[in-house]
Input
Amino acid sequence: MRTSCLQTMRSLPGKIHDRIARWGVVLCACLLAAVSASTCAFAQYEQSFPPEDSIKSAAIISARSTRPERVNVGLRSIDVSRFPTVSVILDARDSVGMHYPALKQTDLTIYQDGRPMKIISLERISIDNSVPVDIVFVIDQTYSMSPKVNEVKSNIAEFTQRISARGVDYRLGLISFSDRIERRREFTEDVNEFIGWIDELRIGGGGDTEENALQGMFEASELQYRKSAQRILIVISDAAYHEKGDKGDGRTEYTTQTMAGWLIRKNVRLYAVTPPEVGDYQTLADVTRGRRYNFTDDFSSILDEFTESITNLYSVRYRFPDEVPPETIALEIRNTEGDVVLAEDVSILDIDKKFILEEKILFEFNQARINRQAYDDLDRMLAILKAYPKIEIEVRGHTDFVGSDEYNIALSDARARAVKQYFTNRGIYSDRITTRGMGKSNPIAPNDTEEGRRLNRRTEIIITKK
Output
């Protein structure tokens, strides 16, 4: 074909031949540029996805004798809140990406820094875990969204109680949008503060049929996430979204493909509450291993399903072999054949890492004087503070719901200061430790049972600087 075209051109008169040749050069240059640009864009998008081989290699052959299965495992976090017991939080999925419900302790071995660890237990995560999850609600605040925004406000308090009861250490952020970004709120642990943000939303705007959800996702991905936390966006909209190059009122630099690559690169999972016929939210949910829910479904039911989705995790517990943990460990998970199916360097002493001490160990009822039997637990934290002199901490006291707000604030503050004094009396500089009495403002369990109230009566030690 190329030869016949050249022969035809040579047979034409000189001027016409030259003009066509010049046009041909320009056209070829344009085509090459277009192909090159699209190839680069696709390559960038494609590189955002994990290579297929790497996904397949991270697999355990389940020990179920009747029907062995290939199970992909992923590391979600390391929970050291009950140190020296360590919980490795794993996500296990079958060959089609669904949660795998039958993982057993005999299916795997854990190695830390090349040494095999004796597994104490393998079970679904529970209230005894502290799994950090940072959740951003990305909400369309245009006129038609008023009923759904009210549903969010009505259900959010119960939702946070449910995820806390599953061992989730949550924080909530907010992005609202119309054709532009309307509000941006950094993370809070206080559900009442979050509800106040929802109350502030002024429903209105939206001058065309599309809204600027992609720009909202970008803004949400740029909030200040905890290093060890799962990153989750919940997008709620009844409209399609603007993409780069649209002629509508909204402006964004993103398309579906480039946003998919961006979210993967930022390690963010997308959950979308949208009508199935608008936008390409399903693609974004699929590639980030999130989920899309139908906009017309009851929001309480959606939150129930979402809770199951983010808490279908396993906690593999073992006892830390050393008195003082290193800042980073090399963690391996091997299958029954001894093959390494997951290997990661994991930071143990990140900022925001939390250590939890139960009230019954530390204090007598209604007292702020430390029990002698609590010394061993406090001395473990003391050893860490001495080994890492740049670490600074905040000690937070918490109570259950029994008693007045004023009483609980005063009691929790006195207990936090008692823990600080324990450390300063043993050589830790006072300016490395701050204290806060939280009272009953941050429960991690329902207060309607004695077990829940027991878990809420606690002292937390949080790394704030290192």
In short: The first helix runs from residue 2 to 10.
